[in-house]
Amino acid sequence: MNRLSIFGFVIVGILVLAALFAPVITKKDYEDTNSGIRNQPPSAEFWFGTDAEGRDIYSRVVYGARISLEIGFIVVIVSAFIGTILGALSGYYGGWLDRFVSGYVFNVFLAFPGLLLAIALVAFLGKGFDKLILALCVIGWVGYARLIRGQVLKVREYDFVQAARALGAGNLRIMIVHILPNAIQPLIVQASLGMAGAVLAEASLSFLGLGVQGVPSWGKMIEEARGIETPLHVLLFPGIAIALTVLSFNFIGDGLREYLDPRQRKR
Asked: Which CATH superfamily is domain 3-12+50-264 in?
């Protein structure tokens, strides 16, 4: 893998460890307020400084990683699962099912900008952790379904699939044993890129006030720090956290694509 993908793995690993051990590596409660230390710059006591309510930004950034990564992983797993099933069925059976799924269902979801559809869903369903995940899954599964459908359409014509069918293998066995293992590689790359998209979408919705309530979120921290008198550090650290996370998953996706497809490896 290239250096950027290794850098991405390192950053994501650090973020995962920080999220898991947040109570151990933070000294302050992320909700503790102190009017006497508002907007303090970074120091030995407050590594990332404090915000307008005197809360420790470092603690809030670390706990914010929990929300972003948890939502990202759940959204990617659920979206990939749903997309794989629908895409595989559509590509394998073809006919009216493929025409309905790829010709109507895909186009309906792709007709709306993803973030706009997520905003509408959250506004309709209400705020909450599960509702936010549902909204992001609704806009996320289509990409996986289209990818798997295209792979299945290609793999189902391979000789070993035809041989398995000639030997009397059932459709379910052919799908699980022969087709999906040979069509799943691009899904791994898509999942890493999907993590970046899910983290960015969660931050965007939180910035708009539609994210998870009662816990720190990077997008919410940026929204709370808006104002011409806000010190730079209040915006800087959650912004860096979002940028590093998104870039790291993109780097990982590029590295996986290069590793899984020998034609893209640099000579």
From this structure: MetI-like (1.10.3720.10)
